[in-house]
Every structure is written in C-alpha cells, then in structure tokens.
C-alpha cells in the first residue's frame, strides 16, 4: 500500500497567495522526483475545540487559516529517496523562497496506508 506524508500548518491569511505559489513550486519538485500526489487544502470548517483541534494543534492565531496537506508515495523507501532528492535540489535553496508561515508550529509525519476505499 502507499505511504503518506501529512502536514498541518497555520498560514497568515495575508500570505495565502505566497503559500500557494510556494506550494505549487514545491509540489512540482516532489512530482518531478516521483511523488504520486501533492495536495494542499485550506481550512473552511475547522472549529476551535475545547480540548484539541487543528487550530489548537498549530496554535493558529485569529488572522491565520489552517492548511492540511499530504504527499503520497508508492512506499516508505520511495518517500525517503524522493525527499532526499527534493531537499538536495538547488532550486529550493536561496532567498527567493521564504516560508509564508511559522515552520516551528507545523505538524508533520509519515504514515503507512491502513485502508483505502
């Protein structure tokens, strides 16, 4: 079964266009190196929970929106290989790409697919 990297970030609303531009570029690199899918979803119905929630998890502020993202791969090994190539790609280096969100509040992890209907 496939392997998935998942991400949740809080993006300032004023940076949504910059985030989309960066993600479009980054996604093209992941796809170029073999990722099956690169998906970015902007929060539309993401309530602030009493105990836990997406906004709480990333310490979202009033002027931020929660973004849920994932990248799919054929396997964990392919994911590791692809990520190594992307991180070494010189097109990601330099000052032209500044993170349009606070990376310290990003949540991410790798997941084995349990069920896909």
Automatic annotation (TrEMBL):
Source species, domain of life: Bacteria
Pfam family for this entry, one: DUF1428
InterPro entries linked to this entry: Dimeric_a/b-barrel, DUF1428
Name of protein: DUF1428 family protein
